[in-house]
Amino acid sequence: MSQPHLELHENPPEQPRRGFMTHFFAAGIGLLVGVVPSFAGLAFFLDPIMRKKKEGSGDGFLKMPVSLDALEINGEPQLVKVIMDKVDAWNKFLNQPVGAVYLRRTAKDKVVAFNSRCPHLGCAVDYKPLENHYFCPCHTSTFDDDGKMQNEIPPRDLDTLKVQIRNKTEIWLKFQNFRATTPEKIPVG
Asked: 0.85 exceeded by the pTM?
C-alpha cells in the first residue's frame, strides 16, 4: 500500500511582508485623501480672519473722479457716485457703486462733501439750483447750501464726510453711510 502523499503548503515568508506594505500604503493614501480636503476646507473658512483689508490708499480715503479744477468756488454742488470694491467674508466685487456724495468747493483749496442720503429716512437728496438748497422728496424737507436743516423733520443736518486735497488737484474722500432717524451721526457698516 502506498501512503498518500501529503503536501504542506506553507505561506512563503514574503506574504506577511506584502500584506503589511499593502496595508501601510492603503492607510497612507487614505490619510492623504482625508487630510488634504480638510486643510483646504479649514483654509477656506479661516480666510476672512486672515485676510487684510485693502481700501483705496490704505487710509480709508478714495480718490474721486472729479478734480478740484472742475468745481467752481461757491458754485453748484456736483453729485458724484462713489465707486469702490465691495468685500464680504469670501467675495470681492470690483468697482461697485456704494453711494453718492455732493461735492462743493467753498474756497481755493477747500471742498465740502455731503452724503446724498437724507438723515431722516435715508432717501436720496436732490439739489435744487434755483432755490439753492438740498431737497428730500420723501418728506419735503430742505437743507441749505451748508447742509443745515431748514425744518424740524430731519433729526440732524446732512452728513458731512472727510475730504482731503492731494497733489493740488485730487479730491480724496472718506466715504461712510450713517444710521438714519437718529440725532447722532452713527456710522453704519
From this structure: no
